[in-house]
Amino acid sequence: MQKLIEFIKANTPNIMVSQKALEKIVDHFEERILGKNDYLLKAGRNSSYFYLADGFMRAFTYDFHGNEVTTYFYPKDRVVFEIASLILDIPSTEYIEAITECKGYLASCESINKLFHAMPEFREFSRMMMVREFVAYKERTLSMINKSAEERYRELLRNNMEVLQHAQMKHIASYLGITDTSLSRIRRNFLKKAC
Amino acid sequence: MQKLIEFIKANTPNIMVSQKALEKIVDHFEERILGKNDYLLKAGRNSSYFYLADGFMRAFTYDFHGNEVTTYFYPKDRVVFEIASLILDIPSTEYIEAITECKGYLASCESINKLFHAMPEFREFSRMMMVREFVAYKERTLSMINKSAEERYRELLRNNMEVLQHAQMKHIASYLGITDTSLSRIRRNFLKKAC
DNA sequence: TGTCCTGGTTGCCAAATGGCAAGAAATGGC
DNA sequence: GCCATTTCTTGCCATTTGGCAACCAGGACA
């Protein structure tokens, strides 16, 4: 649990969280280990709240043509959840999958709500987590609007190098909004330029 | 203020908010009227929190080539704010502009924070507003990934018809991630098909 | 009424990306 | 180490989108 405690401390910059409060918070979490290709969340189920201490995950869904679309990659030291499902308490439309072995700490929707209203420290923390994810999505949308596929690929590598080690090309491709064929070509150019 | 009160009631579905609580909340807001082309927020300033009772707004920013990019359209009956600036208390990178005459109610960042920690009712409400915007962004990102420009245009019209009455084509185009030239062509095909 | 200005459209061609099918490379099971 | 399977790359051509410049239409205004 120490990692979770450190993580919460690091992400409540505006307030000093007492040791007691931290312990009260982490008390609602339980350790969870996922093997490669295990699901943290399946479509139709409700999302819980997961601090990913170690490993690498991805979220995906299916569009109406039945194509799988990778919506997100989660490196370690992030909280992992599907916002609409968690907060609105509705079934998720997304799957979240461990793409390496993963270790972390899990809390239920009810725990999150309880903590959210009971503890100002957790309010700040969870709001911070939500804002972080929201801002990431905003940036991503902006990239989709005004950057080429190649620029988006560069950007992904710059911000999240591990993705290359862990994710398949077709997943990276659909995350970037292109086909795996196009990604392959982009990578070829990329290598050429690098030489 | 009655519209704001109704709006808050309508968006706290899980709890009954007392009249007293509602009054305490709206007490932190003040009426604000914006003329066409007035700014609600400018880049470099900090975002406040605005309930748009009537009118139509858009958010935009500049990419590093200096091109203006429309990031969002706000129809009436929405809260309008730049999430990163508001919550992290940093200068905004976005502008938010009234594209028709607008009327609404404004609260400062400090008021929002105060209410957020002091009143469970407002916590629920503001979390709901944040989730709604977040989910809208997620859907938009998904559209950018797996829909063609034409499909995105149809979708925009379906969900937000007023945008056509109020916004310029070039703003709609950059919102959709295409050039105004392409949008014009798409509209032509669109009309052909409609006949 | 004529002129300027802005916003929207069009034609022409270039660049980016997709679709499909085949081939090459990597991976996993035995 | 070998085969089967999956993942990644490539070639060929179609489609989508962009860039630019010209053009058109409507409103503002002298």
Protein architecture, described:
- Two copies of one chain form a homodimer.
- The first copy, chain A, has 195 residues and is of the alpha+beta class.
- The first copy, chain A, has two domains: 145 residues, Jelly Rolls (Sandwich), CATH 2.60.120.10; 49 residues.
- Helix content of chain A is 51%, strand content 21%.
- The first copy, chain A, contains nine helices and eight strands.
- In chain A, the strands form two sheets. Chain A has a four-stranded antiparallel sheet. In chain A, strands 2-7-4-5 form a four-stranded antiparallel sheet.
- The longest helix of chain A is centred in the C-terminal third of the chain and has 27 residues.
- Chain A is globular, with a radius of gyration of 18 Å.
- The mean pLDDT of chain A is 94.
- At the A-B interface, helix 3 and helix 5 of A face helix 3 and helix 5 of B.
- The first copy, chain A, binds a DNA duplex (30 and 30 nucleotides) through helix 9.
Question: What is the topological layout?
Answer:
The structure is a homodimer of 195-residue chains.
Chain A: H1 2-10, H2 19-26, E1 30-34, E2 39-41, E3 49-54, E4 57-62, E5 68-74, E6 78-80, H3 83-88, E7 95-98, E8 102-107, H4 109-118, H5 120-146, H6 149-159, H7 162-166, H8 169-176, H9 180-194
Antiparallel strand pairs in A: 1-8, 2-7, 3-6, 3-8, 4-5, 4-7
Helix pairs in contact in A: 4-5, 8-9
The first copy, chain A, binds a DNA duplex (30 and 30 nucleotides) through residues 148-150, 168-170, 178-185, 187-188.
